[in-house]
# Entry
Amino acid sequence: MPGNRDTQVATNYHEATKHSYASIRSNPHFLDFANQPLPFKIYPSLDPSALPAEVRQTGVAALSAISETVPAQPNVAPDLEAIAQLLYLSAGITRHRKYPGGEIYFRAAACTGALYEVELYLVCGDLVNLQAGVYHFAAAEFGLRGLRAGDYRNVLVEATAAESAIAHAPLTIICTCTYWRNAWKYQARTYRHFGWDNGTMLGNLLAVASALGLPAKVICGFVDDELNALLDVDTQREVAFSMVALGYDPAIPPQSPAKVLPLGLETVPLSGSEVDYPIMREMHGASSLHSPDDVAAWRGRVPPSSSAPPSGTAVQLHPLADAEMPRDPIEQVILRRGSTRNFARTPISLTQLSTMLDRATRGIPADFLDPMGSQLNHLYLIVHAVEGMDSGAYVFHRAHGLLECLKQGDFRSQAAYLGLEQALPGDAAVDVFFLVDLQPILQRFGNRGYRAVQLEAGILGGKLYLGAYAQHLGATGLTFYDDDVVRFFSPHAEGKSAIFLVALGNSVKRKP
# Structure
């Protein structure tokens, strides 16, 4: 199998999974609802222990929570109530809706197609009201299933080449992704969605951790086989994708209590049959790391950005100061968040847009973003209705706090086309496209850089979601015609690759 440094694999996958006007029409895909996958992983032989049901109120404003990180400090560890808060507000069921033939469960974070292919596992030492062990988060029952008893944190330390945040974390949450649960609808493009959907969930998780006063760091550098073995997942169907280290314990974890052996636990099949898309497993395998030395070499500084300084007409952003921003707490904002299904063609203010961009891009604590504040994705915008701004195409210059105008005009119809011919991006006030210089990232990080790019886009998109809902606006994530997006923003975006799209604006109010 090709290794991480054979970056042609990521390039080939990205090219093969691009959407275009022609590809959509030449590959019609019909959803087999009788074979739709279960939205939950179920271990029928394990009864979950219930988590505390009451949501702890931190009172921390959402716009603060999405933009601030807690520095590492001794003896900060979550108790069981805090763990319940983290899990509920990142992957918990917040509402459900019945429809003829069944019902759909909506979770705290946005997910493509509401298919929720991301599973969460906990690895912890002894915590208040929770014994050391390896656990699976049972979202359907809102509980924890114990998979292994004892302190297995040292497995994570070895798998991450002694990453400091992991070595001192009293709790680490491992995020896995399940191919078929999302590929049922999105086919081979699902591997991109792993990053988006894991990322929006982590946007919530990082914000809640900040509100709870917990240091948190996203970890993408690890020996894949060791994590998958610890969780005993079937890697033909489910794979570890990222981790989050939470809290800080000055002590280093002890040696693991036992050798990591297969658990042999039965799980309920997702559906009657599964369709395999080998290109996704090839992409994941080629982006895997196989030794601590591989991990140590993978970590490090991001490649220098190729973005040119602003040269055209620019709009200075005016984000709200801390004292001026809405005080809606992070818990309240997450619970009212949805994915907008209809936008009103009404303007938002420049201050609202400025605040979303400012708060969402202040930095993500992650092992692939060194130094802190680095960013892989570039943000390009189509502005339709922002007070004080001309309609047109813009690029965001984060360091300067401004938007450079690339071209003026009414581009609503073009935006709708770029967003896979959907009305949403044409009706929104603003569309934010995430584009990257993919080749320097692959050269620096190998195929695993493709994971990092998609994950970062998802986290940033998740923060934009929360920044919008904190200001009583709406947001939705969308797919797109890849090369047409790049062409639209060129020549400035020439050579880049389209990664993600988030539309922002005023939601149409539903009638009761």
